[in-house]
Amino acid sequence: MKTVYLLIGIAIAMVACKKEENPTLTEELAKSSWQKTSILISADSIAPDTIPNIDILSAKPDCAKDNIWQFNAENNTFQLLEGEKCNIADPDIKASGIIEEGNNGNSLRVDGGGINEIWEIESVSASSFRVSYFARNDGKLTKFRVVFTKI
């Protein structure tokens, strides 16, 4: 009878102590490749939601719209791969560098290959994620809102 109680106790302990793992944002992003499908800018850095946003992705040539973002959770890096090249001399890997999660997974610092941005994560779903960040555009501080879609 002691053996039965011991086995029941071990089974309860194993179930009770089973740790549920929640993947990090980087781990989730690393499961797929991503493309930018929307880039909105707003020149009003104080109240960016009060004026119309401008979609700048639609004005870019097709060769600039098909670049692919890949994230690697094992070594916290990213690669930005050229799709169709705008210039035949462009490298296959347009940029690469490190990514660091911050603010409990609510932000990503993306640094490398001329990119140095802190992305605030606005939303994440199984098929897309949206980030926002501030950068200079024609000398003005501009808020960028970018939607990435899984490909």
Examine the secondary-structure arrangement and name the CATH architecture: Beta Barrel
Beta fraction: over 45%
Number of helices: 3
* Main sheet specs: 8 strands, antiparallel, barrel
Structural class: alpha+beta
Tell me the quaternary state.
Answer: single chain
CATH class: Mainly Beta
Quick take:
The protein contains three helices and nine strands. It has helices at residues 2-16, 25-29, 62-65, and strands at residues 33-42, 54-55, 68-72, 77-81, 93-102, 107-112, 115-124, 128-137, 140-150. Strand 6 (107-112) and strand 7 (115-124) form a beta hairpin.
Report on the architecture of this protein.
By secondary structure, the chain is α+β, with helices and mostly antiparallel strands. It has a single domain (23-150), classed as Domain of unknown function DUF4822 (Lipocalin, Beta Barrel). Helix content is 16%, strand content 46%. The chain has helices spanning 2-16, 25-29, 62-65, and strands spanning 33-42, 54-55, 68-72, 77-81, 93-102, 107-112, 115-124, 128-137, 140-150. It has an eight-stranded antiparallel beta barrel. The protein is globular, with a radius of gyration of 21 Å.
